Known about the structure:
By secondary structure, the chain is mainly alpha-helical.
Amino acid sequence: MTATTDRTAERRALESAAHRRGVNAVAWYFVVGTWYVGVWFWAIALAVGALILWIMHRNDDVSIEAVGGVAGSAKFFLFVMGIILPLMTIAVHVASGGTRRSYTHGLWIGAVVSGMTFGVASALVKWGELTLFRRAGWATEPELGQLYGDGSQVGLVILVEGIFCVVYYLAGMVVAAGFYGFGFLRGVLLVLASLVPVVVAEIFLRSGFFGHALARVVGLDGTPVWLAVLGGVVGVALAALLLRVVLRGVAIQPVEFAASASG
């Protein structure tokens, strides 16, 4: 009896260790891979922002919204990365001995870490933008309604932009898993499903692009900050749950290592 118990405990310990390795490998790959490309995204975004500012300054019509929109585009970049990276890794992860469970948990961690660090980057860009506009004597009042007033509210900007980035990243992963495992028609349906947590986050966090308009339509444009942030977290939870459900039903396509090597 003792020997059987010991073997069971040993097997569980090995499975737990393998699960942790799989989760860490996936999370590390997604965080590093996202920022490897993300450095170039931010370099290009800052260059585009500087070009927009230069053109507006020459025309004597400087708007902080036009420049700040560049930093707000980080969530769309992560949505695209959420589509690309899973298509490159899911089959290899399973073929290497990983499980859907470890892959899903790794994606969750990778999305949260990548999204929140992108939120920090967005907050720094918006703070730098606000500082520049104030020193130049340009108007800093935002033209679009949003949850935070301006870039001086660094903590709130990190929360809002970080949650946005996480939701959009997870939504992109749902799209990728849907088309990978279920084909075109059902994949399209999952695209629509992935928009649900995005819409929830947009309504509560009021991005300024279309989130504020949606919030006004449903009567949530006056939501207090704490409730708005909680609503954004609900959007993250919905996206994570949807990703888990989709990945559990995905048929993993086999990886032909020998064929790939010989080709």
